[in-house]
UniProtKB/TrEMBL annotation:
Origin species: Leptolyngbya boryana NIES-2135
Domain of life: Bacteria
Keyword Metal-binding (UniProt): no
Name of protein: PBS lyase HEAT domain protein repeat-containing protein
SUPFAM superfamilies hit by this protein: ARM repeat (SSF48371)
GO molecular function: lyase activity; oxidoreductase activity
GO cellular component: phycobilisome
Functional description taken from the UniProt entry: Catalyzes the hydroxylation of the N(6)-(4-aminobutyl)-L-lysine intermediate produced by deoxyhypusine synthase/DHPS on a critical lysine of the eukaryotic translation initiation factor 5A/eIF-5A. This is the second step of the post-translational modification of that lysine into an unusual amino acid residue named hypusine. Hypusination is unique to mature eIF-5A factor and is essential for its function.
Pfam families: HEAT_2, HEAT_PBS
InterPro entries: ARM-like, ARM-type_fold, HEAT_type_2, PBS_lyase_HEAT
Lyase listed as a keyword: yes
Amino acid sequence: MQKFSYTEILERAQTSARRADWEQLSLDLQLLLLGDESTQGTALSDPNVTPALLNLAMQVLESGSFQERWDIAKVFPNFGIDALRPLIELLKDEEADPESQWFAIRILGNFHHPQVVETLIEVLKTSHSEELNSMAVSVLATLGSTAVHVIEELLHEDSTRLFATQALGQIRRSQTVPLLMQVVNDSDAQVRAIAIEALSSFHSPEITALLITALKDVAAPVRIAAVSGLGFCEGRDLVKHLRPLLFDLNLEVCRQAAIALGRLATPEAATALYEALKSEYMPENLAIDLVRALGWMPIVDALIYLECVFMTTSDEGIQLEIVQTLGRVGENLRSQATAILLACPTRTPTVRQAVALSLGQLGDPNAIDPLIAMLADADEGVRLHVISALKTLDAEVAYQKLGQIEAQESDLKTGIAIALQEWSY
């Protein structure tokens, strides 16, 4: 591959600019500023050439395609603070392409400079573009402590309070806690929700109390944020506060309450989930979330409740979810889960297939003989799942047992013959 000198690349870049060939110009600038030490060092050492290179980079940023802008953005940090002025001027240009301004904001995030913070604040105050404001918020968040005191000022203005709260929510440092607490009762539900969600990253009795209070907020997004946060808190009375949310009018609130109780993983939390599951008004999709939450709990109580629900429900979807959940329990509960699966009456082929699969996943050798007995099932899918489970449990022991039973007169003879035939596949 031919290697061009610094001078040749520079001349080609200038020609590309005159032709408005932004792709080639972008490639040349990357070679000059991001290439090997010889070209990079030469380009940045000449005070007469550097401004010209910056001007060429701005041309690509202003007029190139999305990909060309994405690529050229990589070279701007090499110019240092010299890049700030043209980038800020681009943001002030009311005729500029919004996409180029979006990239300008993104590039400014590379410079931890007071002028950057001031510029981004001005964008939030004056821009009506959701995309620009969102990027400005993200960049402010990356500046961290440098921007916190300026963001505080934005909390006091109605037009910028939402953006300020979003930025504080992304920073997630302890110094933002007092500021977020200032807006937990804001009239804007979106502001309240963001503040509650951000505060839930910090753990203290005061914050836990705030989250509990927010459970009664009229806005569902706020309740969702509070419920989610409480799942990571500690407290003896949390179940009492979370249980009513399992019957909230908003299904997502109910779902998050189930997840939060699952994370608490206490006998009281398991009881709350079980009692909700017994409700005749519980929709199937939410019941499945409750089953999963019980399955996350590493306690025997949860398994007992799952067994009780399986025995009393006629809903195949819920039964199937219980069987699949039992197949994923932790190692300390696998023997109990195996016993439950073997004891539960399975009414449909789909559930019986799931039982075989879960027994294989649990890895308890005590399931080998019961699985072999399932080879008498009339459903081919069940038999194939049984074979797969036997191979997973202990292929050698299972194969020997199949051979021994095949030699005997048994109702299983046909199923075992099929199993042995399929074994090698």
